[in-house]
């Protein structure tokens, strides 16, 4: 492994994972970060994903401010009209770092009118999308929008599909979380450049140590590892 | 000492280049794996006897490699032939592997029980792919074939909270936790409930990078006793390595 660079996680969650019954408390995220050397990252609220967007996004903002992290608000794909209002509310105060979408958790297919509408709103606002779901399904629905996207659930089984999408879409990126094959990160770097990789762990639900170990022991150059670890995410959050 | 009880050799149909045996050896070198128990991908996903024979030609490549004979429960006559031709009298083959999804043979079926009875007849510990609640089906099968020694590969993946119940149902069942998308804190949670004697290290290499399984062990903050048991002692005992 190389010496650990500055690490920022693009995929932190707090709140109740209603599918498993597990909870994420900020204190637990802090513990994991202390053990792994992660400095912070983008935090979203599961309250916003599953129940109520405004109060959930406010929760994420408070958690972020209290921990030196950055909040990543969620828009509800089940309520595109409410998403319009929530995005207006967010933009009327401090510019959000990005917007997280959870089509699978919200049972919204990318072919639904809501998905495309909300995605276009976010792109028009100049914000990066952080999108859950199968990249083979959600990726095609985000083509030809000029979107900056980080796919949070790209599994290495579908790495080829991501590469095909990324070749045509310079704004498409992927979290490293499930690129766990022995050559997954290296293939992305070789095919479309290491700049498409963004360190993401889904702390504290996913095994953070495994994602970190994969990155630090990869065959990317030390400079690339450092950039994947934080710099590429920071760049995506810029206006 | 580190023993990987769940590994493979051969190419996959995904967008990855991990087919040559040199990939196994390079990963063992990089991650300090002292012994690796490998089964043939060809044997798992396409043709068990052909894959087993192809693997037999690879095992001499490195002293750290041990063979896991792939059994297709639909082809037990050929499996018996493989056992006689490849395994009997050859200490490089140490166990059997059954992937119930690729062989389209659910664990709770008579065909699967017959397969386990066959590997038990030959004294082979048998690693069985478990996903979801099938880890409980494997526990029940282990209980029905009490002389068998079974390892729940992936220990049910997302159904890992079923492991204590599976361990309670059958004392002749062990657990191996490799998973490409591991939930946090599984290893610690399970060790605290079943103790260190039933869990052993596996990677799923060369499908999955060993850093993933090693990261899960790091997260578990193993005691020295747990570390020795999980990393090598349990495997040494079960597979007579």
TrEMBL record, chain A:
InterPro entries: Metal_Hydrolase. It comes from Kribbella albertanoniae. This is Amidohydrolase-related domain-containing protein.
Automatic annotation (TrEMBL), chain B:
Transmembrane segments: none annotated. Residues 3-240 form the Amidohydrolase-related domain. The keyword Hydrolase applies. It holds the Pfam family Amidohydro_2. One of its GO terms (molecular function) is hydrolase activity. Keywords: Hydrolase. The keyword Lipid metabolism does not apply. InterPro entries: Amidohydro-rel, Metal_Hydrolase. It comes from the Bacteria. This is Metal-dependent hydrolase. It comes from Kribbella albertanoniae.
